[in-house]
Every structure is written in C-alpha cells, then in structure tokens.
Specification:
Layout: E1 6-11, H1 15-27, E2 31-37, H2 41-51, E3 55-57, H3 60-65, E4 71-74, H4 81-90, E5 94-98, H5 105-118, E6 122-125, H6 132-145
Helix pairs in contact: 4-5
Amino acid sequence: MTRDRLHMGLIGCGMISQYAHLPALAKARGLRLTALCDRAEDLLTRIGQQVGIRRLYVDHRQLLADETVDAVLIAVPDAFHVPLATAALRAGKHVLVEKPLGANSAECQELARLVKQTSLKLQVGSMKRYDPGLAFAHRFVRDHLGAIL
C-alpha cells in the first residue's frame, strides 16, 4: 500500500453497519471507506447514496477483486464470518471481522494459519471487551450471584 490512507470496503450494510460501523468509519483517521457490498441491492443503493460511496457490489467476490480496496470490514451474520474472512485473505485484503470469529476453534486456527501464510492482518471487533458496564456485570455475577452452573 503506497497511499496515505487505507482504503476499506464494507461487506454487509445491515443494522450493525448502519448504527456502529459507518459512523465509526466516518470518524476514523488514516482510512477511507471506498466500497460497499450487500446482497440486498435496494439496501446497498440506499446506504451508498447516504454515505456517498459509488463502488457498490452485490457479490463479495467483486469487492474482493477491486484492486483499490486494501482491507475489508466483515459485518454479516456469524455463519459467514470465516468463509468471507478466508476469501478476503486469499484476495490479499486485511480483515476486520465482527465477533464471533468462527463457530469452533478448528476453523479459527485455520484462519490463523492463513494470516501467518499471507502476512496480512486479521482482527476481531471486540469493542465491548473493556466496557465498564460489562466489567461491573462480570464482578456482580462473580461476587453476588455465585458460580455459573
């Protein structure tokens, strides 16, 4: 990548993207959202118009083939995280994927091998990991409710 900004593609224009990812991407420094992908063409067109993106794809393979896209954010139903992350890494794209990464440790380990093989970055979005409210709930359960059965 020789540009001064990372060019990001978003796969999945559903609610989590509309309420969390798109606003965060708009604020992010060092990256530029350049492409969108969603199987629902009407949703894709509407979101593309709202955020001013013209590179719109209904097939993720088209977005992954776009040489102007350096990385992808995968925000689709859980069952598609591993297949799409695998396809993105094989296409030479860095990946930010929603949690959970996969359904089991074996498929996650396979992704880890692919990351090592490609030297690309893969990160799982765990934005609530250090949330004070969740930390409080964890302590409350541990200290006041007892052992989880």
